[in-house]
Amino acid sequence: MTKLNIQEYTTKAGEKGYILKGAYIGVDSLTGKQKRTSIRGRTKTEVKLKFDRKRREFEANGNTTKRASDTTFEDFAVMWFDRHKLTIKPNTVQFTETILNIYLIPQFKGIKISKVTSAMIQEAVHKWQANASQPLNGRKRRKKGHSCKVDVFVRTLKAIFNHAIANGLIENNPCNNIIVPKIKLESTDKEIKFFTKQELDTFLEHMNKLPKNNFRNERMLSLTHLLAFSGLRVGEAMALTWEDIDFEAGTLSVSKTAVNSTIQESVKSDKGNRVVLIDPKTLDVLKHWKTVCKRFMLRLGNGAQPLVFPHIRGGVQDYKGLHYSLEKHCKRANVPYIGFHGFRHTHASMLFSAGATPKEAQDRLGHANIATTMNIYTHLTKENRVNVLDKLEKYISA
């Protein structure tokens, strides 16, 4: 056992006393930080006894500054989130933070975590369900605080209370018997946007007619062409480096994604890690862009850039800032604005038109769940639906 450094001191009244400064008693289970304490006594024995009692209290509660029963739901939820966010992706961090700040913390604010009951949680679930079920009244999106992700709220609550159990604050999880009723939702009629083949040709023709001595024009042309003919997510494309492209083999490797202005060394799902075959025309577009990009970067003094689609000043380009430019080009080309994700849907539509199976499309697009692929499959162009009907009629009459 470590010898305690108990020192003698004299009080202002001239009396002799003893003090133990900064003695280590363990790691706080709530904060993950080392806990130290200072103890005074009239004798060394008294100081030792006080220290032993303090250490036993710490071992029993895991927290010397606040008893378990005094910890509020809000305080513990924030501490849980501070740890949990280190294990999840940036987009999930933002989503979880929204759930906490808009739904969970306001609902249980000021309540001790040991006092949150199953009845309270069930009441909250019914309230969230009622809000989510309200009519949209012509709106395309639900109002703030009216999310339909009630099952996700309950899963998040369950994780928080499981962590509270692990830290000795409570004995049972009040979420265990919670019922999440099926929510009757008014459809938002979210349309899957994509170009028909003719619209894609019109858009690319417009982009090819733009002045060539312009970094942003050239980058937009190359980016949208790649998205349309590879099916990449825009974040995956913005994270590509030239090393990811094998011009000899005609492939590109997808293993990371851009989130805001940073590169995340993982994609949306395990299926997202993939090698995509690229057609010769798209390879030519990329080769041309590589030459153009290098010339612009050297002219601007930014040097060689490893990224395929960098910011004009070098580094990662936040693609959210490119939406306005894309919308402008769609308007000038007289085609509907489909957003960057619409090019991915366009590629899926072309795959199905070419006869690809849903499984083949799933592998190429990197969908974790084939249901996502099938959802896009049902939104073929009118021309394709007519073609399917023609095939059926020919089969029946044969």
UniProtKB/TrEMBL annotation:
GO BP term, pick one: DNA integration
Domain Tyr recombinase, chain residue ranges per copy: 190-390
Keyword Repressor in record: no
UniProt GO MF annotations: DNA binding
Keywords, ordered alphabetically: DNA integration, DNA recombination, DNA-binding
PANTHER family documented for this protein: PHAGE INTEGRASE-RELATED (PTHR30349), PROPHAGE INTEGRASE INTD-RELATED (PTHR30349:SF64)
Family to which the UniProt record says this protein belongs: Belongs to the 'phage' integrase family.
Name of the protein in its database record: Tyrosine recombinase xerC-like protein
Species of provenance: Bacillus thuringiensis
Lineage, uppermost ranks: Bacteria, Bacillati, Bacillota, Bacilli, Bacillales
